[in-house]
Amino acid sequence: MEELKKLRETLDTLPWIAVLLLVIFADGIYGGLYRITKGDTTGIVIGILWIVTGGLFGIGFIVDLVTVIVNKKITFLA
């Protein structure tokens, strides 16, 4: 559990442009890891779903991209 907190802190401290690039090129993995690091069962299930489906078959990619551009962090299903 401590490792998840450290990973979440690392992901939260990434520069905005790095997060934007991760969302554009690797949203399935980045978005999934970000959701898994929430630490509860729901976050883990949604994170695995995000990784397996590549960001909910593209819909999640669009949501994450808009969220990062507007809020500078991912909050949808996080």
Q: Can you tell me about this structure?
A:
The protein has 78 residues and is an all-alpha fold. The protein is 79% helix and 0% strand. The longest helix has 21 residues, at 16-36. It is globular and about 30 Å long. The model has no long low-confidence stretch (mean pLDDT 82).
Topology readout:
Layout: H1 2-12, H2 16-36, H3 41-57, H4 59-71
Helix pairs in contact: 2-3, 2-4
Keywords:
79% helix; 0% strand; mainly alpha; 78 residues
Quick summary:
The protein is an all-alpha fold and 78 residues long. The chain has 4 helices and no strands.
Poorly predicted tracts of residues? none
Calculate Rg over CA atoms. Answer: 11 Å
Shape: globular
The average pLDDT score comes to 82
Q: Report the structural category.
A: mainly alpha
- Largest sheet, strands/sense/barrel: none
Which percent range fits the helix content? over 70%
The helix/strand series, from N terminus to C terminus, equals HHHH
Strand content: under 5%
Total helical segments: 4
Query: Kindly, what is the distance between the CA atoms of the first and last residues, rounded to a whole number of angstroms?
Result: 17 Å
Beta-strand segment tally: 0
